[in-house]
Request: fold
Amino acid sequence: MTNNTADGQTTTSRAKPDIWNYRGPVIFSPLCSWPPKPLSALRAIGTRWVTLSRNTLFLLFAVLVYSYLLPDMNSMKTLSLDWILPVFLRNLFLLIVVAGGLHLYLFTFRGQGDKLKFDPKAQMETGHRYSFNNQLYDNIFWSLASGVTLWTAYEVMYFWGVANGVIPTLGFSDHPFLFAIWLLATPLVLSGHFYVVHRILHWPPLYKSVHSLHHRNTHIGPWSGMSMHPVEHIFYLSSVLIHFVIPSHPVIALVHMYTRALAPAFSHAGFEKVLVDDKKLIEAADFHHQLHHRFFECNYGNVDIPWDRWFGSYHDGSDEATLQMRQRRKRV
Ligand SMILES: [Zn+2]
Ligand SMILES: [Zn+2]
Reply:
């Protein structure tokens, strides 16, 4: 039996076959460590906002879109396909580039082989449980047809409200400090919203009728992230409504939307990091959510805030945690 370790080395053991090709550590952000770890927290913030990360990537996308690709404010005062269609096509393009790019590199061209891949399966699956009997087509269909449409609907509502002065905004030059606070707080707001919404989606009637579509994917890839039922997209993307009531900058609202709509391509990539020539290019999936797709009733949140540890649904990837989770399930 061979296993890849964190640094990509191969070890040999006589243990029973592992269900994982690679077990990543589940590490919560030090932002909420107790007792506090201020230096580690500062380092984590620096890694997130100063190095190449999905956060800096989405901030760049948001600044570029806001500066060069935003329809004219006057035209956005009325709902018209003249500007809504370009917004839809731009969002379609962004998701295809991010999820499609990751899929091509990691699964089609196998750019890093199996290195840091959690699940031993090499390719997406086929079978009756998927639309079109094909996991990849299924995932692309739900991501684009439902995901991009509902993401665009929220974006259109937001900019229609901004253009008409119904939604309050803050200028960057007048409020640079608030802009920075918003930027730093956005991942935490998203983490809390995701935990609450995700727990609601695991309420059995909603799980069966809605969330099970996302959970068709036990072996996940970049396109699985936004592969959701339309009702789940409405719930999941509703965190952006915070910008409808609390004044922020449109760039912050766009960063928020990209974090919702594009980050799942990374978090479901199936590989812990994207490697180029064995060197980390960017962080990708976390083992925490991979475990949720494998075991369902654990790890409902993400690693930005340790909700699962606080509420007793934490799985650290060990066999002992699997046993404990099964015993908990039996008791329930
Ligand atoms: Zn998921
Ligand atoms: Zn779930």
